[in-house]
Amino acid sequence: MCDRVREGILVGCGNPLLDISAVVPLNFLQKYSMNEDDAILAEDRHMPIYGELVEDYQAEFLAGGSVQNSLRIAQWILRQPRVAVFFGCVGEDRYAGILKEKAQAAGLDVHYQVKKDVPTGTCAVLITGTHRSLCANLAAANNFTIDHLEEPSNKALVDNAQYYYISGFFLTVNPPSIMQVAATAHAKQRPFLMNLSAPFISQFYMAPLLAALPYVDIIFGNEAEAQAFAEAQQWPSGDLREIGKRLVAMEKKNPARPRIAILTQGCDPVLLIQQDSVQEFPVTKLAVHEIVDTNGAGDAFVGGFLSQFVQGKSLDVCIRCGNYAAGHIIKNPGCTYSGEPEFVE
């Protein structure tokens, strides 16, 4: 059983999306000019995907959005409700109701901003074998505004937190909100964690990412995201360790707490990169028949990490719990879990 932690110790901001998940043939991806393992924002040509999945495939609705996923996994492992507070924007519709119900059932303390004239965001999760491709229609999630964080009750929640986590995906929505949370974390000398999230963030949103990075104490990413960042910075992109070292060495607002980079590589070891060291943490390999859906493995890794980090556990315990959570989620559809958590330090 985890040590008891106080309510509201962790705040996350992100895009609350309802995942519409289905197994599809490869030509479905080709029809929409998508590749396996893509993570893209929907354009006009992608809009029919969502209705088509519901009508023609056995689509499943799952609570989604990267940060909300990570916080749900952290709550599952902590087995204590309302440790994590989540901010994001939804519409006033049935999908928002489903999202809120699923998030609260998982123990999250959600404080959605509600926009009446825009639908709740959705994400098509297209499963082809062990691959998953994501196409997100942010819709209402794209309408989050900083004034929601400035409402007194919400500001109190942000001020009250000890840990802050925001995805790179949120850079496409409202950078001023990210900077406000980052500045709060910095002023209070509390950890601010961020995720590179997807290659397109480094390719198209580098300016707001570079503005936030000096505040970031721990940066997460996978190999494709780290390589995209390196290429955008015109660094050599072949060596993940070297990319991690350069990430760690970038400008930092609080040099007394050097930045840490945690880079995942699928079934290869997780790299923990600090100022003067690189450590490897092996990943338990699963048999092909055990892999149901890799969607959410990265979110789950962060959720497992956060569940231990907010308890003040060592980085190696945090990473091992991240690996445990990712390994569990891969055996389930979407970013969902089953049974009681079985992580042992």
From TrEMBL:
Main subcellular localisation: nucleus
Pathway: Purine metabolism; AMP biosynthesis via salvage pathway; AMP from adenosine: step 1/1
Cofactor note text: Binds 3 Mg(2+) ions per subunit.
Keyword Kinase: yes
A GO biological process held by the record: purine nucleobase metabolic process
Recorded coiled-coil stretches: none
EC number(s) per entry: 2.7.1.20
Cofactor section: Mg(2+)
One of the record's GO cellular component terms: nucleus
Family: Belongs to the carbohydrate kinase PfkB family.
Function: ATP dependent phosphorylation of adenosine and other related nucleoside analogs to monophosphate derivatives.
Protein name (Swiss-Prot/TrEMBL): Adenosine kinase
UniProt source species: Drosophila mauritiana (Fruit fly)
Organism lineage: Eukaryota, Metazoa, Ecdysozoa, Arthropoda, Hexapoda
Gene field: LOC117140651
